[in-house]
Design goal:
251 residues; alpha/beta; five-stranded mixed β-sheet; 11 helices
Length: 251
């Protein structure tokens, strides 16, 4: 992740903020928020499911030690020294993440989709604006004879309509459009796009969502709109907020 952050270019998560206002985008770049607990959990789950060997090497569960006592403090210090460089997570989170990984394996379609090249970064220059962009694909795979970009998402619910609502809220359509464009610019090949969504609570159900061409085209249109806004603001140096001339409807 650190190496990816150092790559030049606009990330999907940053560019999505400009749909609110360019001022929100600019502020976020200059005042990076601390990662939330939910975000850190999602990163760990991604690692466990996409790169299980790396997960075991990089993460460790905190032992049940009473650190209020002298002996407990010493035992915990020894544990930290033994696991220097690893990310420590709670036993509960470790159990949940491993159970989630098993649930993904048990879903035949999801397991097959997530078998491929993992965590692939690409950078490209947008031909219309000249702005640099970047993306990191969770997985590139071939399924039923077609190449796909696969994106794994943890979600509160996979019930009918729930993931679709999350798609609108978090810009998943925009992500599909931007990532397919990035893949084409980097490889000169077309790819489909599919989400593997998994609930964060037991029994950790999994659903797959294959994006139809219209969904991806609409996402690409959103990408064009947002990168165009970014380019204009970047050229002018004016990162405007809400329109000062907005009129309120009467009544």
């Amino acid at each position: 992740m650190d190496k990816y952050e150092e790559l030049p270019g606009l990330r999907r998560s940053d560019l999505w903020l400009i749909h609110k206002t360019p001022a929100h985008f600019k502020y976020n770049l200059e005042h990076r928020p601390e990662p939330t607990k939910a975000l850190l959990f999602g990163i760990a789950a991604h690692k466990a499911i996409l790169e299980p060997e790396a997960f075991e090497a990089e993460y460790v569960a905190a032992p049940a030690i009473d650190r209020r006592t002298k002996a407990g403090k010493e035992e915990y210090a020894a544990f930290m020294e033994e696991n220097a460089g690893k990310t420590v997570i709670s036993i509960d989170d470790m159990t949940t993440i491993r159970d989630m990984a098993e649930a993904v394996k048990a879903n035949e379609t999801a397991a097959e989709l997530l078998t491929g090249k993992h965590e692939m970064p690409v950078t490209w220059m947008d031909p219309d604006t000249g702005e640099g962009c970047k993306a990191k694909f969770d997985c590139i795979t071939t399924y039923d004879g077609k190449e796909y970009i696969v994106d794994y998402k943890t979600t509160d619910s996979c019930e009918d309509g729930a993931f679709e609502r999350a798609s609108r809220k978090y810009g998943y359509k925009f992500q599909a459009g931007m990532y397919c464009e990035g893949y084409f610019q980097a490889t000169l090949k077309q790819a489909g796009f599919v989400f593997v969504a998994q609930e964060k609570t037991a029994p950790y159900l999994v659903r797959t969502y294959f994006c139809d061409p219209e969904y991806i085209r609409e996402g690409y249109d959103i990408f064009r709109l947002l990168i165009g806004m970014y380019h204009e603001c970047n050229e002018s140096g004016i990162w405007y907020g809400y329109g000062s001339a907005d009129l309120l409807a009467e009544g």
